[in-house]
Amino acid sequence: MDNATQAQIENLQSQGQNVLIDFYASWCVPCQQLMPRLSNLEQNYTNVKFVKVDIDNNMEYAQSLGIMSVPTIFIYKGTELLNKSIGANVDAVYKNILDTL
Fold it and tell me: Could you tell me which residues come within 8 angstroms of residue 101 by beta carbon, excluding any fewer than 6 positions away?
């Protein structure tokens, strides 16, 4: 999973790409536990671009999306938000949505 900026994400979305965004913080233990699991999912969903955004380095972007806690996962189909989940959920939560893409 690559770090991404707001501009990079918006570019992917404007191209109609499926995007999973992991909003995280380096000090967040649940975030650290979730990242390897998302990386494993990334290998199985080649039709989805997995990216991560450090909220401490991208505070304005995170605030503009109403992110109040981390980890927060957004899953987009192009510009359409399909799911927003807060916390480190079980993998099945993400798979159920990713399977629809």
Answer: 18, 45, 47, 48, 75, 77, 82
User: How far apart are the C-alpha atoms of 101 and 99, rounded to whole Å?
Assistant: 6
Measured in whole angstroms, the distance separating CA 30 from the mean position of its chain's CA atoms is 14
Q: Which of 71, 58, 70, 67 is nearest to 9 (CA)?
A: 58
Q: Are 52 and 76 in contact (CB under 8 A)?
A: no
Closest among 50, 84, 90 to 70, alpha carbons compared? 84
- Of the candidates 99, 98, 74, the one whose C-alpha atom is nearest the C-alpha of residue 86 is 74
* Overall pTM surpassing 0.70 (yes/no): yes
* Catalytic residue ranges: 28, 31
* 55-77 per-position pLDDT tens digit: 999 999 999 999 999 999 999 99
